[in-house]
Amino acid sequence: MSLMDFYMFAENSPLGAWVRSYTYAFSLIQVVHLLSMTMLLGTILTVNLRLLGVAMTSRSVSEVADGVRSWSTAGYIVTVITGFAMFSSEAIKMSDNSMWSYKISFLFVALILQFTMYRTMTKPGRAEKNPILAKLTAVLSILLWFAVGMSARTIAFI
Known about the structure:
This protein is an all-alpha fold. Helix content is 83%, strand content 0%.
């Protein structure tokens, strides 16, 4: 299966057809997507600011991460579902958009960072033992998620 086959499969899926068939479906899904992204990125930024040592310094990094974990998880789940729904409604169009490739690339790298270094740094005592790596992780996370957002927003203008 080629990448174009996947794009065609997504666009011709029942989900893609459903989103295209209702006038306000895409808009409603997009609003939910933006709200869930805000929740997700807000929790990520909260932990990143703690990793940088500029917010909530009276609490450990793991305490802050544990406090927002359920909100982060909900944000991830809803963002992925709504993102795929929007994608499936115009997948072939996305295949021709150069910013789509950038967005997916940045997203892939950001998710790898989130589920590796970031997760390691938020375990009890890890960030405190290696503050330079904790700060580097936070800066990379912020930059990558900013790149995801910028490239996603630029898709509409390409």
